[in-house]
Amino acid sequence: MAILKIARMGHPVLAEVAQPVPDPRAPEIRRLVNDMVETMIDANGAGLAAPQVHVPLRVVVFQAPGSRSDPGLDEEERYDHTAPLTVLINPEITVLEPALEGGWEGCLSVPGLRGFVERPAHVRYRGFDLEGKLIERTARGFHARVVQHEVDHLDGRLYPSRMDDLSKLIFESEARHFA
Ligand code: NI
């Protein structure tokens, strides 16, 4: 296992369309995922996509802990809003409701900044795990946001390009003014 160097906004690897993984069960994919998880946890991120560690393949890891989702939901809704540590290989997202929801995002490739981004609030996603098994889930809230943010990385997009009001692209240290 190793902590990998994270590419920052402006590096060309972040603007590429990443390639599909031919075999999710390949040992080099398992090594990559182990290193991505270690790197994400070390950097205190909620998600990481392979291009962010200079590997242009369609692999993401993320988690949506319960504490980050909205309080006051019933059990079924809460599950929708949270996700355990998840590996998705060759992911695809389907928007279930086009209504947008705004939320603050950060990105390990855009260190020190936060941006207010509107995205579809309810999605379904599918992809493969390291055993080649299909994972299929619906997601809302922070869970829906993080998976869309990570899959955007695979298509060469960073969250500032999803923003339409750049007055809400701010330094983390100023976030208290927007609370
Ligand atoms: Ni990111």
Describe this structure in words.
- The chain has 179 residues and is α+β, with helices and mostly antiparallel strands.
- The protein has a domain at 12-97 and 122-160: Peptide Deformylase (Alpha-Beta Complex).
- 21% of the residues lie in helices and 32% in strands.
- Strands 1, 2, 3, 4, 5 and 6 form a 6-stranded antiparallel β-sheet that branches.
- A hairpin with a 7-residue loop joins β3 (83-105) and β4 (113-128).
- The longest helix is centred in the N-terminal third of the chain and has 16 residues, at 27-42.
- It is globular and about 45 Å long.
- The model has no long low-confidence stretch (mean pLDDT 93).
- Nickel (II) ion (NI) binds at residues 107-109, 149, 153.
- The site of nickel (II) ion has 5 residues, from α3.
Write the layout of secondary structure elements.
Blueprint: H1 27-42, E1 47-49, E2 59-64, H2 75-81, E3 83-105, E4 113-128, E5 134-140, H3 141-154, E6 169-171
Antiparallel strand pairs: 1-2, 2-3, 3-4, 4-5, 4-6
The protein binds nickel (II) ion.
Summarize this, please?
The chain is of the alpha+beta class. It contains three helices and six strands.
Structural class: alpha+beta
Report the top-level CATH class of the domain at 12-97 and 122-160.
Alpha Beta
Number of strands: 6
| Ligands present | nickel (II) ion
Task: Tell the overall outline.
Answer: globular
- Strand composition percent: 25-35%
Spell out the CATH superfamily of the domain at 12-97 and 122-160. Peptide deformylase
Say what the CATH topology of the domain at 12-97 and 122-160 is: Peptide Deformylase
